[in-house]
């Protein structure tokens, strides 16, 4: 029996999707000629698809994906727009939205500096545990909390780097961590949010509603594996150290894949940044400091690993090292000590000149732990071979 | 009462339910299904099979990626496509389409030899896959066995070859293929104590692979096809000792005793079949036919 056009189109789309995925894998492996060959085959098959369904959203979407893979971003944008105009199918619309977000990211990478991208990153403090997170629509990597009401979503937006400095977010996080209710950390919170909920300007409400809608749509994919992956296979104890070799409870040898070690290392650094590090010098202007940008960048890399298990690209790796060089000294909040990472190949911890014995004792374990985590980070970025 | 919720895994950015898990050797195959209500986004379809690799050291990831990358270059109707090198719960993972079952499953279900037409179809499919891999990527499979021949459907006699390049990974120094951890401990015996060989599954491995020096190439795969052909048509593995003892089986391969067993098993077939399969099982690699085009033609003429 002959296949229906619909089934034939699905078959072609399936073949093209596999070829695109293979091309992506080969590209990431640096096998560019083989990746280009896969793309050529995909392009050839897409001609058949276009003949079969010349005016379908699926054909446009497929053409957009192929164009994006070979770097023709403007054409990809046109095709995505065309696809969007041609369909009401929720699955295709979901895929169009996903590809559109990828295209946006590709364009930012192609068109601007990564530094500008970091300026545009959003970081929120989780309302429950205070950890830095970068998507309010997803559960917090640390405590699984996420906003489920409009009010909660508005509060999350209020305690983001759009409204506050990263240093202020760290202060909120520290407060929450010690058990203080958010309303006591930010005295006018209730009043401000009440205004937001009733204000004539609906932009914040719209943004919050959008985040809640996205959360509902993505909820099926809300299983994140890091806790299971970072658990001892014998006793089930979750470990949080990137350098763990054996389980501290039962002594079983542990094996952590490199991306998981990086995830745990970034998590540790973010804890340091939130609790122990001086993010902002007093009286500085409201423009983010280099240290705050670094914190935002690490938060986004941590989040990417958590959400998608994607390791940093080559570009992101070199960006981390460049940040470390330009920051130089990372001071502790109390200024008793610092970690000098100006040379990422030679990171050292130091006490402030003239520090007293009491000050040294107070800070020693912190700067040693921070130094070790930064050394691990620098080594990972410079040396670890892991598919990004 | 409703079923208990299935275990979940994270495949890249997608959640999947585990509907099956098969451990073998140094790898685990996960059979996965998207949860109810999940959008089938592009390659992350409703059902997927994913292979992860056990007990890797950090440095191994780059090597695995390279080997899997070679698999990803292969594109042929008789080769299971490697869709993507993904991450499953942070482990490196080979993502494949989910096939209905393996030839081994099929044979186990039948409990009797297959007919000749079916055997021809399976052998031709396998040779076509080997020809394509040799012609486009210059690679041999080196771990051909019914478990790596996946059925397109459990009714039609057609297979796709899976697991390309993985036997080379497992043969790296310091790596122990799964059968080396067999309690029988045959490797410690006098016969093979000092040998080095490419990892694979011993009862499908050619005699030369148990010696120190051998040339990686099609002859090794042709031998494995010969073992599979005998198994298809007689229901017996010629290289497997009657006691089912792996160590004795290896000794039988090294001492060429398997040949007389194969001859006995195949005796009831026509002479053309007998001659063809015994040529594949020739103990001397240089005497085995290795021109896949010619082998396909020979099979079709049978």
Radius of gyration of chain A: 24 Å
Global structural class of chain A: mainly alpha
Mean pLDDT of chain A: 88
Q: Give the biggest sheet of chain B.
A: 6 strands, antiparallel
The SSE string of chain A, one letter per element, is: HHHHHHEEHHHHHHHHHEEEH
Q: How much helix is in the residues of chain B? A: 25-40%
- Uncertain runs of chain B are 170-198
Class by helix and strand content of chain B?
alpha+beta
Number of helices of chain B: 9
- Could you name the ranges of chain A where pLDDT drops below 50 across 5 or more consecutive residues? none
Helix-residue proportion of chain A? 55-70%
Anisotropy-based shape of chain B:
globular
Strand order of the largest sheet of chain A: 3-4-5
For this structure, the quaternary state is heterodimer
Provide the gyration radius of chain B in Å. Answer: 20 Å
Strand content of chain A: under 5%
The ordered H/E elements of chain B are EEEEHEEEHHEEHHHHHH
Short description:
With 388 residues, chain A is mainly alpha-helical. Chain A contains 16 helices and five strands. The interface between A and B is large, with 47 and 42 residues.
Description:
The complex is a heterodimer of chains A (about 400) and B (about 300). With about 400 residues, chain A is mainly alpha-helical. Helices cover about 60% and strands about 5% of the residues of chain A. Chain A contains 16 helices and 5 strands. Chain A has helices spanning about 5-30, 30-50, 55-70, 75-85, 90-110, 115-120, 150-160, 165-175, 180-185, 190-200, 205-220, 225-230, 260-275, 290-310, 315-325, 355-385; strands at about 125, 130-135, 330, 335-340, 350. In chain A, helix 1 (about 5-30) packs antiparallel against helix 2, helix 3 packs parallel to helix 5 (about 90-110) and helix 7 (about 150-160) crosses helix 10. The model of chain A has no long low-confidence stretch (mean pLDDT about 90). With about 300 residues, chain B is α+β, with helices and mostly antiparallel strands. Chain B is built from 9 helices and 9 strands. In chain B, helix 3 runs antiparallel to helix 9, helix 5 runs antiparallel to helix 8 (about 270-280) and helix 7 (about 260-265) packs antiparallel against helix 8 (about 270-280). The model of chain B is unreliable at about 170-200 (pLDDT under 50).
